[in-house]
Structure formats: structure tokens, C-alpha cells
């Protein structure tokens, strides 16, 4: 740095690199074969392997959800026993949280897109990246063993002393999630390093795509919070195996301590699950409004603020658990503070649309569904943060509805927005807009049918994790179940058209959305090493008022030194503005 | 508003419910205003500024600090109001009036025991005086449970290693449902109870006669009552169906195989042991889930149950 600043005359020559359309060679058809995939260190392939695993887990978790909802059609036993029901909701929750949502945007979409958005050839530690995928798989195998050897019926929260006394294979399951945590930590470390060290020349922090800011904030939480989960689960295992009293009162332990430990991870984890979604939404809204993002810094900083305050609010899950009233007051207060940066984001996104040129393509449709549903999730979160009201609503269906609005209505929609947005980049194929929008609307209708009635049920007092319920709630439950079948149909349609697109889809152009972002300035699908040149950044990623040519710059000479501190001489490029 | 309230919330039957409900409605209404406003803006923008041609040029509006401050500060003020309101409500919920009538609550998987000052114990039925604060002092015999009465808007976890407490004042005599809201295993969703709020006089008479009527009851009849009163029948049927536990029909005098292969004949001692120390010997094919009734049932009551079991051939 110092040396290049001392010599301001040291300029680099750049020229325009137009992306090749419909490339013959790309990362999907170079290095093929199962072995090449399994040993690949290419972040794009690893991203796709994650994507395939996630799709599998989402399918399993989703089917389990439908089984649960079917059982709830009648107030008493419909077709399964209470114990089976309890195991299924545990599995559904654990799979959706640990195997689907936590890795969804960071590990799958993030892996694919992060180096492309930063303008580098791969993440900082490609081998670690591959290792993290295998650790994820090993964690999944352990969980599978747990299911096959007795099942687990503790809920995804594993509360003691219940989890210490119940039958089944709780240990194997917690071990699986323990292992999974390392995958999350490694991904986090990798992303932080990559964002710090491998940005393309000219990509200063104020030109970093908001998606990168979001992944950066997420990675910090992953690295700091996941070890706490690991320790907690390890202590739990030690207690069960060695009978050391930590959480189990029968051994002299304290069950509330467990809850503190657990939520100290799991609340930040809620933000691991949602913050990456914010990044996707920022990209999508700006691209499809073809307009500079409103309040870049407000959005970027609010991600970090959420990550930071998110660490300090875990106690809001324990308002009824017998904490001191002082602790309750502080946690309630801080919980409201997290609401503010979240609100700021929403306002900025809506402001971005103002006087834009809005193209209601599928990703944008998902982004808007996200906005609507996530707002409901957020407002009901405010409700739950209000102490007196939470006393009434805690552990009822109101909470079930709230977190489904945030996780599914929010994050899954953001994930789908991202998936449809980057699909052409990933596979070089377009999907059917018509079918995609159709299924988005089906999912929207089904989702709200499923979860809106649950707010009412919960306010009326229907507790969560109930296999039986009193007759009063039956019509709500039935409505909700029908809604969940509609969601199922929506996803089935999505599976169909994406599969069709994958095999028969029309070829995608390099930049079908006319985006200014860097990942769209390479061909679709990208070459094996992302960029044939070293990209150079002179504009922000959302500067739609600048010509496309200025976003396709790269170092003219082929030498591959470091150029981060050098000034850019654009005089040669401005000439070939197209 | 009243219709809406009846649709969303159960009837408010305690003195503290009103604050909770008012805040509930306040948040709902404020949120709804924001939700509708923002949603309309989104839809309107999407239509008004829809893409007309691929050459569309958009203005450069990168930020506006006044706007940022406005939409940070207004929500901040609103949430601070909500915070203060919620906290005051909460303080009322945890500050028990001095003259509260105390009932001791013991939670066991999966039933609620209520111990009164007279030593009388009722299971899954809580009797309290109305128009007078009632304080519940609660603990659990096993895992965590949570005591929730939607009509009173109160809830508190019940822990195995310490006492927690909760208070309410019922505004009029009547019945309300109690749920367990902390997941506690197989029959979590059956762990229900009923609160009966009586006028003070009715309550006093109830307390006086409760249990005393038992004295002059025929043992078989008493046994039958105790089996329902103590929620044995949530796990044991009398008609041969298999619930959580083995049926009582034909149990007496039969030979039972234990988990370790031992064969026992069901006699007075075995039943007594099963009631007081259910986990001493577990019947083959069942889970060790029966709670102990030591301290709940006295000898006379156990005898009565035995007499009753004898009749169920
Ligand atoms: C098809 C849509 C879905 C349906 C119908 C559904 C249904 C359910 C049901 C019935 C429960 C049990 C509620 C209770 O008794 O407490 C549940 C719990 C849960 N669901 Fe879903 N769900 C769906 C999607 C999702 C998604 C996408 C996620 C997250 C990515 C998710 C995360 C959870 C979690 C974390 C729990 C809590 C599990 C526990 O209490 O241990 N669900 N869901
Ligand atoms: Cu939380
Ligand atoms: Cu329970």
C-alpha cells in the first residue's frame, strides 16, 4: 500500500473484456466425471454439491412437515402415535434448521457466488472449502444413524433434563450436529478471509456488493457463535455418558443453564439463517429495479449491527423460564433494538424501487413475497418481544407461526429469489418464467393459508408441540393442513420446471437480467477459473447510471501480480464505450 | 374491536389480562398500519415504475439522510413505547400481592397435582377463590413443564430443581383450561388441567368437604373415584384397551412379566409398590413413565384403589 501511494504515477492499463456468450467450455463440462466432482476444489462445484444436498434435505424435511400436518387434521390420534409424532417434529425442525437453512444461502449460493462477486478465482482456502462440505456430509451421516437407531424426540432444542432422560439416540444426533458446526465455522473463516484478501483491484469496501456485506456479517456470527453450540452439545454428551452433573438437576446440574448456552448460539443462529437472505434481496431488488441501491451504507451497516446486537438477545427465549426480572427487562429492550436495523433495511429496499424500472421477473416476485412475509414475521417478533404479551404467547402456535414467517416466509423466499436469480449463471439455462411465477404464487397462497391461522390459534392458547388438541382448534388446524398441501404442490411444480430447464432449458445469455454486478460480467456458466482476466472495478455494483462497458474492465496485460493499491487509468477504455 | 378481540384472544378472566390485551391490540393495529402502508407502496411502485423499455434510465438517488433518520427514529419511539408498556405489564405479573391465597403445585409427567393448606391433594383440578389473588408455588418432579392458563394470560415454567411461582386474581367464578406448554415427552399434549374459580364461600365449603366425603364412602367407590381424580385413567383403561400403561381390566391376581424376566403376581404389595415406586420394577413392553404417587396418596386411599382393582375382572 504505502509504496504504491508513494508513487501515484504507477497506473495500470485496463481494457474491456466482454463476456463470451454461450461458451463452449465452462466449469460444468471441464473436469467431468464423478471423481473429479468429489475431489474438486472449485467453489462453484462445491456450491452445487451443497445445493443438491440441501434440496434433498429440504425435500425430506418438507415431507415430514406434511406428515405432521396430516396427523393434526383430527384432535386425537389420526394415524400415528404420540411418540412417532414427537420424533417427526424433532426431525423436521432439526433438518430444516441445521441441514437446510443454516447452510442454505451461505454454503450453497454463497459458495457459488462469493468469488464471482469479488472477482477472484476461488475462495481463499479451496481445500478447506471442500473439507467443510465433507464435514457436513459426515454430520448428516451421524444424524441418519441416530434416526435409524432409535430416533430422537427432544425437539430441535434438546432441552435438559428431558434430553438427558428420554430414550432414543440423542447422543448420536447431538454429535452429528456438533460435527456439522465445524463445517459452518470453516465456511465462515474462509469467507471472511476471502472478502478481506481476494477482492479484485479497485473493489474498495464501499464498492463491495451488499450480498458480500451480508455474508461477511453472517460469517462473523458463524465463527463466533457456533463454538458455543459445540461446547454445549459436548457438555450434554458428557453428562449423558459420564454422568457429570451440568444440566441435569438429578445430578446436581442446572437445566436453565442449558437454555442459556443453547440460545446463546441459537439466537445468533437465527441471524445466520436470515442475514444472508438480506444480501440476496438487496441484489435482486437493485437488479430488477435497474437502479442504484438506496442507502448502501445503511443496508451494509445494519447487517453488521444485527449481527452484533443479535448476540445479546438470547434471553428473550426464556422470559417464562425463571430468569430475574432485570435480565428479562434487558433482553426485552435489546430485542427491540434489533428490530430497528431490520426495519431500516425494509425501508431502503422499498425506496430503491421508487422511480426504478421494475421488471417483475421471478426473482423479483420472490423478493416482494419476501418483503411482505418477512414484515409479518418481524412485526410478530415485536409482539413476542413485549414482555407481558410474550408471557401469554410463549410456546404457543403464535411462536410457530412467527418463526415460520421468518424462516420460511422470509429466508426460504430469499433463497428461492437467489436460486432463480443465479440459476442461469449456474447452469447456463433459463427456466420457464410462466411456470416459475405460477408456482411462486401457489407457494405464496399455500404458505399464508398454512401459517396465518396459527397466529389466531396461538393467541387463543393452542400450545406448540401438541399431538392432541382440544376440539375448538380443529377448523384452524384443518385449514392450515390444506394450506400445507398447497405449498407442497407449489414446490412440486418448481421441481418440475427446474428439472426441465436443467435438461432442456433454453440457453441463457451471460447477463440475462442486465445486471451491473460482477458475476454477470462473465459467461454463463462461468469458465472453470471464473475470470480469464483480472477484473478491475471502478464503479459501485449498483451504478446503473454508468454504461455497461465500465463494468467489464480487466487488466490489459496478462501478468498476474497484485494491483490492489494501484490507480486505474481508464482513458484507454472510455474510447470503446458501446 | 370486541369481535376482533373475541376472535383472536380467549376471554379475559383475570385482573392482569386487560393490560396484556391492550398491548396486544396496540401492536396489532400499529403493525397493520405499517404492513398495509408498505405493502401498498410496494405494489404501487411495481405498477407505476414498471419497466417500459429496455432502454429505461433511472435517476441516481443514492441516499437521503433525513429519510434514514426519520424511519429509524419513528419506529424506535414506537418500540420503546411497546417496551415500556410490556415491561410494566410484566412487573404486575410478577409482583404477587401479600394477601394471596397459596396453593402448592407439583408437576409430574404428565399430570398436575395441587396441594392445599388442609393437606388435600387434587389432581388435574385446581380450585381457587375468585376475586382474591392466588399464588401458585410450583416445582416439578422430573423434567421441565410449564403452567399456562390462556384465560388468565399467565404462564410460568415449572422446574425440577427450584420453586417458581405465579399469581393471578380471577374476576368471576368459572372454569378455565390449563395447558402444559413446555414439551415434556409422550403425553405432553394430554397434560391438561382445569381451574375452577369459586366464590369465596363456595371455595371454603369445597375445601372443608373435599376429601372428608371420602371417609364415609364405600372403598370400591372411593377407589374408582381416586383413579379418575388422580388421572390414573389417562394411562390405564378399565376396558382392556392399551394406553400408556397396561389396562386395569383383569390385572388383579394375574401374572406379569417384568423387563428383567421376573414374573410377579399382582397382589396388594405389588400394586402398592407400583403406586409409590413405579420405577422399581417395570412391566415388560412399557416405558418407565408412570409418576410416583408417594406423598399424594395415603395408605387408606391406596387400599381403596386396591379394592377397586379387585372388582375389575
Ligand atoms: C411446508 C411447510 C412447513 C410446514 C407445513 C411446517 C410444519 C411444521 C409443524 C407442524 C411443526 C410442529 C409445530 C409444533 O407442534 O411445535 C413445525 C415445527 C418446526 N418447523 Fe416447520 N413446517 C414447514 C416448513 C418449515 C421450514 C421451511 C422451516 C425452516 C427452514 C421449518 C422449521 C421448523 C422448526 C425449526 C420447527 C420447530 C421444531 C421443534 O419445535 O422442535 N419449517 N413445522
Ligand atoms: Cu432469539
Ligand atoms: Cu409438557
What would you say this structure looks like, in words?
The complex is a heterodimer of chains A (578) and B (313). Chain A has 578 residues and is an all-alpha fold. Helices cover 63% and strands 2% of the residues of chain A. Chain A has a single domain (16-521), classed as Up-down Bundle (Cytochrome C Oxidase, Chain A). Chain A has a three-stranded mixed β-sheet with strand order 2-1-3. In chain A, helix 4 packs antiparallel against helix 8. Chain B contains eight helices and twelve strands. Chain B has helices at residues 2-8, 17-48, 65-94, 200-209, 212-215, 219-229, 268-276, 299-311, and strands at 101-108, 111-115, 121-123, 125-129, 133-140, 145-149, 154-158, 164-169, 174-180, 193-198, 255-257, 263-265. The mean pLDDT of chain B is 90. The chains are: A mainly alpha (578), B alpha+beta (313). At the A-B interface, helix 4, helix 9, helix 10, helix 11 and helix 12 of A face helix 2, helix 3, strand 7 and strand 9 of B. The site of one copper (II) ion (CU) has 5 residues of chain A, from helix 9.
Amino acid at each position: 500500500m504505502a509504496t504504491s501511494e508513494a508513487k501515484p504515477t504507477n497506473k495500470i492499463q485496463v481494457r474491456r473484456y466482454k463476456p463470451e456468450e454461450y461458451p463452449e467450455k465452462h466449469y460444468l463440462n471441464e473436469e467431468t466425471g464423478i471423481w473429479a466432482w468429489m475431489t474438486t476444489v472449485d467453489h462453484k462445484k462445491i456450491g452445487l454439491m451443497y445445493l443438491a444436498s440441501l434440496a434433498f434435505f429440504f425435500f425430506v424435511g418438507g415431507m415430514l412437515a406434511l406428515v405432521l400436518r396430516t396427523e393434526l387434521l383430527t384432535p386425537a390420534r389420526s394415524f400415528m402415535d404420540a411418540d412417532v409424532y414427537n420424533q417427526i417434529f424433532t426431525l423436521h425442525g432439526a433438518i430444516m434448521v441445521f441441514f437446510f437453512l443454516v447452510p442454505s444461502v451461505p454454503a450453497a449460493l454463497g459458495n457459488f457466488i462469493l468469488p464471482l462477486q469479488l472477482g477472484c478465482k476461488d475462495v481463499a482456502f479451496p481445500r478447506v472449502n471442500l473439507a467443510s462440505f465433507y464435514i457436513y456430509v459426515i454430520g448428516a451421516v451421524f444424524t441418519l444413524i441416530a434416526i435409524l437407531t432409535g430416533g430422537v424426540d427432544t425437539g430441535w432444542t434438546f432441552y435438559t433434563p428431558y434430553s438427558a432422560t428420554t430414550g432414543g439416540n440423542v447422543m448420536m444426533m447431538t454429535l452429528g450436529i456438533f460435527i456439522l458446526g465445524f463445517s459452518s465455522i470453516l465456511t465462515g473463516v474462509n469467507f471472511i478471509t476471502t472478502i478481506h484478501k481476494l477482492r479484485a483491484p479497485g473493489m474498495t469496501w464501499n464498492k463491495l456488493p451488499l450480498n458480500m456485506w451480508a455474508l461477511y456479517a453472517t460469517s462473523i456470527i458463524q465463527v463466533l457463535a457456533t463454538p458455543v453450540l459445540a461446547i454445549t452439545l459436548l457438555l450434554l454428551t458428557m453428562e449423558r455418558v459420564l454422568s457429570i452433573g451440568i444440566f441435569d438437576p438429578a445430578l446436581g446440574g442446572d437445566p436453565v443453564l442449558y437454555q442459556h448456552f443453547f440460545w446463546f448460539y441459537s439466537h445468533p443462529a437465527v441471524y445466520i439463517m436470515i442475514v444472508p437472505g438480506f444480501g440476496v434481496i438487496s441484489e435482486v431488488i437493485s437488479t430488477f429495479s435497474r437502479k442504484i441501491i438506496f442507502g448502501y451504507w445503511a443496508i451494509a451497516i445494519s447487517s453488521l449491527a444485527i449481527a452484533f446486537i443479535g448476540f445479546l438477545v438470547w434471553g428473550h427465549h426464556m422470559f417464562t423460564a425463571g430468569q430475574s426480572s432485570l435480565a428479562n427487562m434487558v433482553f426485552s429492550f435489546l430485542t427491540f433494538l434489533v428490530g430497528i436495523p431490520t426495519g431500516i433495511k425494509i425501508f431502503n429496499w422499498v425506496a430503491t424501487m421508487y422511480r426504478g424500472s421494475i421488471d417483475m421477473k421471478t426473482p423479483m416476485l420472490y423478493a416482494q413475497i419476501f418483503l411482505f412475509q418477512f414484515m409479518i414475521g418481524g412485526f410478530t417478533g415485536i409482539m413476542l418481544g413485549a414482555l407481558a404479551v410474550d408471557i401469554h404467547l410463549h410456546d404457543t402456535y403464535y411462536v410457530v407461526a412467527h418463526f415460520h414467517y421468518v424462516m420460511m416466509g422470509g429466508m426460504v423466499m430469499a433463497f428461492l429469489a437467489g436460486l432463480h436469480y443465479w440459476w442461469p449463471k449456474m447452469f447456463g439455462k433459463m427456466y420457464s418464467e410462466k411456470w416459475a411465477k405460477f408456482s411462486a404464487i401457489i407457494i405464496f397462497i399455500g404458505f399464508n393459508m398454512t401459517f396465518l391461522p396459527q397466529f389466531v390459534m396461538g393467541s387463543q392458547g393452542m400450545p406448540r408441540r401438541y399431538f392432541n388438541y382440544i376440539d375448538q382448534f380443529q377448523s384452524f388446524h384443518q385449514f392450515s393442513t390444506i394450506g400445507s398441501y398447497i405449498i407442497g404442490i407449489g414446490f412440486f411444480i418448481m421441481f418440475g420446471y427446474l428439472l426441465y430447464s436443467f435438461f432442456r432449458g433454453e440457453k441463457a445469455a451471460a447477463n440475462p437480467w442486465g445486471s451491473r454486478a460482477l458475476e454477470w460480467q462473465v459467461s454463463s456458466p462461468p469458465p472453470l477459473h471464473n475470470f480469464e482476466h483480472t477484473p478491475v472495478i471502478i464503479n459501485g455494483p449498483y451504478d446503473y447510471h454508468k454504461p455497461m462497458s465500465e463494468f467489464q474492465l480487466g487488466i490489459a496485460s496478462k501478468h498476474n501480480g497484485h494491483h490492489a493499491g494501484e490507480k486505474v487509468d481508464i482513458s484507454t477504455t472510455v474510447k470503446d464505450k458501446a | 374491536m370486541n369481535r376482533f378481540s373475541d376472535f383472536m384472544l380467549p376471554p379475559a378472566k383475570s385482573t392482569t389480562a386487560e393490560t396484556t390485551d391492550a398491548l396486544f391490540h396496540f401492536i396489532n393495529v400499529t403493525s397493520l398500519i405499517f404492513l398495509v402502508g408498505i405493502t401498498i407502496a410496494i405494489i404501487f411502485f411495481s405498477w407505476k415504475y414498471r419497466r417500459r423499455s429496455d432502454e429505461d434510465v433511472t435517476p441516481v438517488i443514492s441516499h437521503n439522510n433525513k429519510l434514514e433518520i426519520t424511519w429509524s427514529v419513528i419506529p424506535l419511539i414506537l418500540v420503546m413505547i411497546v417496551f415500556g408498556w410490556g415491561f410494566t405489564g410484566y412487573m404486575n405479573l410478577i409482583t404477587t400481592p401479600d394477601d394471596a391465597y397459596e396453593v402448592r403445585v407439583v408437576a409430574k409427567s404428565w399430570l398436575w397435582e395441587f396441594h392445599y393448606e388442609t393437606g388435600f391433594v387434587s389432581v388435574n383440578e385446581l380450585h381457587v377463590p375468585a376475586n382474591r389473588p392466588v399464588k401458585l408455588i410450583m416445582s416439578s418432579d422430573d423434567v421441565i413443564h410449564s403452567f399456562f392458563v390462556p384465560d388468565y394470560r399467565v404462564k410460568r415454567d415449572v422446574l425440577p430443581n427450584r420453586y417458581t411461582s405465579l399469581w393471578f386474581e380471577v374476576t368471576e367464578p368459572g372454569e378455565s383450561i390449563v395447558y402444559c406448554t413446555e414439551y415434556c415427552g409422550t403425553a405432553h399434549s394430554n397434560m391438561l388441567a382445569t381451574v375452577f374459580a369459586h366464590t369465596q364461600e363456595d371455595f371454603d365449603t369445597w375445601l372443608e368437604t373435599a376429601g372428608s366425603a371420602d371417609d364415609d364412602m364405600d372403598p370400591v367407590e372411593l377407589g374408582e373415584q381416586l383413579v379418575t381424580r388422580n388421572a390414573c385413567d389417562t394411562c390405564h383403561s378399565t376396558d382392556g384397551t392399551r394406553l400408556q400403561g397396561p389396562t386395569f381390566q383383569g390385572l388383579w391376581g394375574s401374572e406379569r412379566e417384568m423387563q428383567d424376566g421376573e414374573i410377579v403376581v399382582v397382589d396388594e404389595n405389588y400394586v402398592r409398590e407400583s403406586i409409590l415406586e413405579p420405577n422399581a420394577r417395570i412391566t415388560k413392553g412399557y416405558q418407565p413413565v408412570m409418576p410416583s404417587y408417594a406423598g399424594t396418596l395415603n395408605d387408606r386411599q391406596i387400599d381403596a384403589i386396591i379394592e377397586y382393582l379387585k372388582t375389575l375382572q
